[in-house]
């Protein structure tokens, strides 16, 4: 045996000292009765019983799933033609499943078919018996305040500014708790009822949210703050893809019309809570995504719509859907993002397109082969929306960070005859307002929306503000108000006016809603 080194001797001494210490501690614990020696697997002590696994009852209609196996086990060589074909088949099957999810449903829906969450509606609870900017700025920083309100000598304008700035955020519930849709809000509308504010919102995957802001918050004791109830909301799903536009016809206040990227326009009866498809291509395999819907005030039976491929259509709902019953025009080579009929002269309508143009059209003389606009104005970048008011004004929003106002009433458009056109270069906006419209990919595009029946001679419209406000402008481009409040943490990009009341609502990318009254 070789002689141990001093280090090895010290190591063995430490091990012996440790073992002796552990032995003494074990003996002391045994004498105190707080230690029992562990039983080995070969001891005669009782073995713990294994808990019997619950028996799985196999249902009669349950079919066994095939076990997953790798290509190697199945004998398929890597990089072989068989493996490639299998990968292609799997991809095609997954794509078909995804396509089936987005394919529109052509049947009629009841409330139970559409219901997703919230409170199921009845006729009385929904509408009741009484219903037959200045450039980019820092977030939360106002660009219109009390000093701007006073900067006018026009008494009517000053009074309206004070009235609009007097609107306050509905505070029964925090805006963060009013989640009207599961996904990003794309479009909104007020019910025309003046007795209570009812808001409809459509989101990016086909949900329709309904919110009655006349409800009162129940009283909750301070000790029961955890039981504080959320507001009553209802979520339905009448479409399979984005709801891009909606409206309630003024002569049919119990019917809500919604247009969707799933190529259909549906009519929802707010009393019966049923949804019926009013327009769609004859075949469910035809993909003609819609971008807007509108109806004339004097014609409750005709639908007008635009498509993402630049098309415009007209359809009389009293006729069966067929190629002969639907009139189509190709008005642009690119997407028409928004359009509207003139409320006072419904044969005129305006379109806003990705081709950077706002165009005015006359339905009385619109050729199918070669449609010619009455007037056209080209912006530096794409135009997002064109909104008509009853006075004959058009408000547009554009990615060139401007809001443009065209006053056709001042140009005497009501006396224009069929075939009248404005020469190129002579159709110019009367007012241009600087406004940040750079929404990016996560915020819904900003679109102006007029108050259709204002209770004064001053026309007004609202539009979302990227600083987390809603801006209100007059028909001459003067800013009337900048609506905000505590609890608004996202851009209320989708802003809408009530038809006649000074109520404004804004929808966010998180499906939340803000309301000013």
TrEMBL record:
UniProt KW Repeat keyword: yes
The WD repeat ranges on this chain: 348-364
GO BP, sorted A to Z: DNA damage response; regulation of DNA damage checkpoint
Superkingdom to which the source organism belongs: Eukaryota
GO cellular component, one term: nucleus
KW NADP (keyword) present: no
MF GO annotations: DNA binding
Keywords: DNA damage, DNA-binding, Repeat, WD repeat
Span list, region Disordered: 31-79
Comp. bias intervals (Polar residues): 33-44
Protein purpose: DNA-binding protein that binds to both single- and double-stranded DNA. Binds preferentially to UV-damaged DNA. May be involved in DNA-metabolic processes.
Family: Belongs to the WD repeat DDB2/WDR76 family.
Protein name (database record): DNA damage-binding protein CMR1
